[in-house]
Each structure stands twice: as C-alpha cells, then as structure tokens.
Amino acid sequence: MHLNRSCQRLFGGAKNYSLCTATGFKLNPRPFEDIPGPKSLPIIGTLYKYLPHIGEYNFNKLHKNGFKKLSKYGPLVKEEIVPGVNIVWVFRPEDIAEIFKAEAGKHPERHSHLALLKYRKDRSHVYNSGGLLPTNGSDWWRIRKEFQKALSKPQNIINYISVIDNVVRQFVKLCGDKKYDDLLPLISRLFLELTCLVAFDVSMNSFSIAEMQVDSRSSKLIDAALTTNSAILKLDNGIQLWKYFKTPLYKKLCTSQKLMEEYATESPLSWLIKK
C-alpha cells in the first residue's frame, strides 16, 4: 500500500516487528526509515528486482511477491519501486486496522490507478471524473454515494435475485460438465455477465457457444479488462514516463479502455438488436 508522509510515524522498524508492538494499549512507534525491505538503488529504485528471468519478483504474481517479502523481511516491508515513492507492504490485519484508524478518515487518499486517471482526464468529452477507483477526497465520496444509492437499496437487490440465480446456475452447470485446468476464464465470464445485468439490465449471453469464441464481444471485453488491470499495476509502479509521452504499455491501456468505452456507451437496445 502507498503511504502519505503523515502515516509514516506509525511504523515500526526491526525485522519481524509490527506496529502493534505495544506496552498495554500504547503504541511504541519506531522510525519509518528503519522498516526493512529490498534495497533501493538510485534512479531505478527496486525495479531491478522485477526484471524478467533475473529478478526476484514478478508484477504478475503479487501473491508470490508478498509471500517472499513477508518471509524475508517480516510483517512490515518498505519498498521504493520508484525512487521517492514509498510503498509499505502490511501483512497483519491488526496493523492494517491501526493504519485505517489513524489515516483513512472519511475520504481516504490512495496512490493508485494513476495512469487510468490520466487517461480519463485526457478524455473529458467522455468522462466527467476519474471514476470510483482513481478518484480521491470529496470527489470520491460524491461518486461513492451515487453508487450506493443505486446498488445498496434492498429492493434493487431483490429485483435481480432471479436473474442472478439463473446466471450462477449456468456457471455451476458449466463447471460440472467438464474438467477445467484453469477456472479463471469462466469466472471472468460470470463476473462480466453479472456486471452487465446489474449495470445495464442486459444479458451478454457470456456462456453461450457463440460468446465463448475468442473473437466474440464478451471475450474482447474480458481481455480488455485483464489487459487494463495488468497495465495499471506496471504503469503505477514503474518509471512513469507515460506522464510525458505515450509509452507502448500506456498505449495498450488506452486501446483496452477505448474498446470498453465503445461497448459501455452503446445503448442497451443496440446490444439487443445485434444479438
């Protein structure tokens, strides 16, 4: 997780110590600079640790990265993937709770989805904000409240019970029809189908034979979403040249987002006509 400087006073330093090292209920803070972690080099930070074949970590395997860091450095790990931007990996739930209590407040500030925020700000003719994930502060709270109004009312949930149940039954049947070495593609289809039902009141027929083809609309949307997530992680945590010109990876993000825009801005009726 990324930290504001005001939060750094909370953190302890010695290996295998957490910020919950306390006498009674009193925290015993240690210097932020003493938190253990991978060595950061000038200019490249810890990016050398993520180089293919020779690096210790892999941007596509966060769970394994986290396990290695926890095993080597303990439950608090400091890292500068990009020089000047401190990231602290927090593994203990008790420590995470302390951070939220001390820092979050009503409007949390997250240092993530920066490339996606730039993309959306550059396309103000399509977007009137950065969206729920990239936005922070009072703007984030305003967007979140609008989502809550639409998605949290009991009646709205009740209205979708039968259609969601039908989709889940299709998913379970497919899972039982044959063995899958990797269920992720099928789970992605489930999430896409449920999202479109709730957000647009439209079924994508994601489990149909036609939509299971690689060149189908649902397959392209799923691929665009996966590409977006992968690109965001690397763009946010690497050297941020995309802020000044369109790097190849930033272009991939733009292409994926534009494809998703095209489908999202079409009317639900036009989707039905095309089926």
TrEMBL record:
<dbReference type="InterPro" id="IPR001128">
    <property type="entry name" value="Cyt_P450"/>
</dbReference>
<keyword id="KW-0560">Oxidoreductase</keyword>
<dbReference type="GO" id="GO:0004497">
    <property type="term" value="F:monooxygenase activity"/>
</dbReference>
<dbReference type="GO" id="GO:0016705">
    <property type="term" value="F:oxidoreductase activity, acting on paired donors, with incorporation or reduction of molecular oxygen"/>
</dbReference>
<comment type="similarity">
    <text>Belongs to the cytochrome P450 family.</text>
</comment>
<dbReference type="GO" id="GO:0020037">
    <property type="term" value="F:heme binding"/>
</dbReference>
<keyword id="KW-0479">Metal-binding</keyword>
<keyword id="KW-0349">Heme</keyword>
<dbReference type="GO" id="GO:0005506">
    <property type="term" value="F:iron ion binding"/>
</dbReference>
<dbReference type="InterPro" id="IPR050479">
    <property type="entry name" value="CYP11_CYP27_families"/>
</dbReference>
<dbReference type="InterPro" id="IPR036396">
    <property type="entry name" value="Cyt_P450_sf"/>
</dbReference>
<protein>
    <submittedName>
        <fullName>CYP302A1</fullName>
    </submittedName>
</protein>
<dbReference type="Pfam" id="PF00067">
    <property type="entry name" value="p450"/>
</dbReference>
<keyword id="KW-0503">Monooxygenase</keyword>
<keyword id="KW-0408">Iron</keyword>
